[in-house]
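Let's sit down with a protein and look at its sequence and fold side by side. Once you have written the record down, we can walk along the chain together.
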Amino acid sequence: MAETEAKKVKVPRQKMKEQTPEERVKNFNEVPLGYTPEQAQTEAQRCLMCKKHPCAAGCPVNIDIQSFLKLIADEKYIEAALKVKEENALPAICGRVCPQETQCEELCVLGKKGEPVAIGALERFVADYARERGEGEDLEVDPPNGLKVAVVGTGPAGLTVAGDLIRKGCEVTIFEAFHEPGGVLVYGIPEFRLPKAIVKAEVEYLERLGVKIVTNFVVGRTQTVDALLEEEGYDAVFVGTGAGLPMFMNLPGENLIGIYSANEYLIRVNLMRAYKFPEADTPVIIGKNVAVLGGGNVAMDSARTALRLGAERVSIVYRRSRTEMPAREAEIHHAEEEGIDFQLLTNPTQFIGDDDGHVKGMECIRMELGEPDDSGRRRPVPMEGSEFLIDCDLVVVAIGNAPNPLIPSTTEIETSKWGTIIADDETGRTSRPHVYAGGDIVTGAATVIEAMGAGKRAAKAILEDHKKS
């Protein structure tokens, strides 16, 4: 056994082929190109098949990781895809955007002696393999159980709840405010990181299972949660409306033309296809010198989008160091490869406009790191007298989002001081009977997979509560 283990440690982790930085900055096509079957099999065979399989404990949606890796190793790719779909309705999405490096892969035993098994890349591979061949995707659905559930929002939490409940025989309808389903997966994450065709295919899979999706329906305006329960006959409502309220810094000059929230900027480009203007009639300002404020994945997405739209220079302006950046390492690495300028330990103090009210520059101050704050990261402290100017004709503010306030304001439901809905971590139950919530509307802005985990727990609770009633 020890000899086999030693051999597996020596096998290098398979690297996905990617578009070169020079190619990809000129298009919106996906950057990583995926594994070949041969690469996938080689990578899966690196798994040590540990008795305790600790990787499973790092998966918020409880995928049987070891089983699906063994199926890949045995060249049973369709079966592997079905194994993943037993617990995860969105594997092609998770394989692309979930932070496996801090979850399942972080706990991989192989990673203690070398590089961990590329679980995320293998999840993506089997999902793509099955979808591209049109094989083995649809799992069985239980007979109708009489439970009628409304889901608000087609983001990762809502889609997961719907997928779990439809398979158990529930009647499920998802209400989406926008004209296309997918939530943040469609409007927030750029095409080069998550192709919209992938999201569409995952949504269509749920529709084939029987989920009904109603778009252009704003719960809280078109109808309230109370009306869904009391007038439309739904037995339960799950709220997964996310954190779509942009946050700003409240600095002088922040209302100048050319200063976007990341929400508006990415929605214009992604959902409304502004990058195809005038073919798509949604305009967006194309800056020559673009500054993006923030250090998370949304900041990286915004900066790399600006580059692809034709910016000559794009800067990430972040008040801490690279070590404290919350963005995934892969996203930071790709941004660096593409020539994004990182202005670290830097914080804006005011925006400067021209005579026509357009932003033309930004005054910043240098920062140094002090003692850790509540987030565990060292607190940035301004350095007196270090002010300087950055020329910019477009600014994207990507410093975070607040929860969508519409449903809490139209339904009697308990919320926190931050405006998030208070819900039980394990069940998603809220203070309003028959109403459950999960994802960013509960936690504030977090990851896709965490929202999906909350959706799975809420679906389980909805079924349990129905049996008791």
Q: What stands out?
A: Residues 448-468 form the longest helix (21 residues). The chain has a mean pLDDT of 93. DSSP finds 17 helices and 16 strands in the chain.
